[in-house]
Design brief:
heterodimer; A: mainly alpha; 0% strand; B: mainly alpha; 5 helices; 77% helix
Chain lengths: 147, 111
């Protein structure tokens, strides 16, 4: 694994020498995407799993009987690993802001898979979060193109 | 919401953010020795766990829609933490994006 001497420069877009050449599947931004999908999947699995188990009092321990909850825990652990890989190459503040996509994917997932209703205000919020992510992602996309 | 509970929320958020800073320290530094990396990841997991348990302790006291919008200050707090502790650069574009995301998050979480 190549080591970095400094972080990619978000503003100047002139740090191509800092972004090592790597196979497409190692692209850190792809891994941020994996993190988002895995942690959203975990939330939806937790919800689906705990809905099917009797309500416990002690921090929902009874949910541990559900296979969906365990699958969710697996997704959570996997998301930590891909996240750590992404942090190797991407400044934390950028990675963390892009990970806000989870705020979009979780409601969409609970709408699609759990049949939950989304209010108009919430759709508006989802749209605004997406817009914010695009503002941050655009200079990054240009940086990628130059490689 | 009393000041006391607000402080607990702040502790929960700060711990989660401290955890992320530790993770970045573990992965991002150019010359991390293997055991340093493991120590930073361990510290990050501990900090994240503390944040999580504070959150769990708070949850029963309030309806989720009352406290979840606090998630909206996550990213601004992270911006401050990353520039203070990791010396990451904040660009106007990044600040604008974070502001827009936070407004959206407050709308998604608060309704």
């Amino acid at each position: 694994m190549p080591s970095l001497t400094s972080e990619p420069d978000h503003a100047g877009l002139k740090s191509e020498q800092n972004v090592p050449k790597m196979a497409w599947y190692l692209n850190p931004y792809l891994h941020i995407g994996f993190t988002v999908i895995l942690s959203a999947a975990a939330q939806i699995l937790f919800k689906a799993g705990s809905d099917n188990t009797p309500g416990g009092t002690l921090l929902g321990v009874s949910s541990l009987a559900s296979p969906a909850v365990w699958l969710g825990i697996g997704c959570m652990i996997a998301s930590l690993f891909v996240w750590l890989h992404a942090l190797r190459f991407v400044p934390l503040i950028i990675a963390f802001s892009l990970a806000a996509a989870t705020q979009v994917v979780v409601p969409l997932g609970s709408w699609l898979f759990l049949g939950e209703q989304i209010s108009l205000v919430r759709w508006g919020g989802i749209l605004i979060v997406t817009l914010g992510i695009m503002i941050i992602a655009r200079p990054l996309a240009r940086l990628e193109e130059r490689l | 919401m009393t000041l006391f509970f607000f402080l607990l929320l702040l502790i929960s958020n700060s711990s989660a953010i401290a955890g992320q800073v530790c993770f970045k320290r573990a992965m991002g530094h150019p010359a991390v020795v293997a055991w340093h990396r493991r120590a930073w990841i361990g510290a990050g997991l501990v900090a994240a766990a503390i944040g999580f348990f504070f959150w769990l302790a708070l949850l029963p006291h309030f309806p989720l829609s009352k406290i979840y919008p606090i998630e909206a200050i996550d990213r601004p707090m992270m911006a401050v933490a990353a520039s203070l502790f990791l010396r990451e650069r904040l660009t106007p574009q990044l600040i604008l994006g974070i502001a827009v995301i936070s407004i959206g998050t407050a709308l998604v979480a608060g309704t």
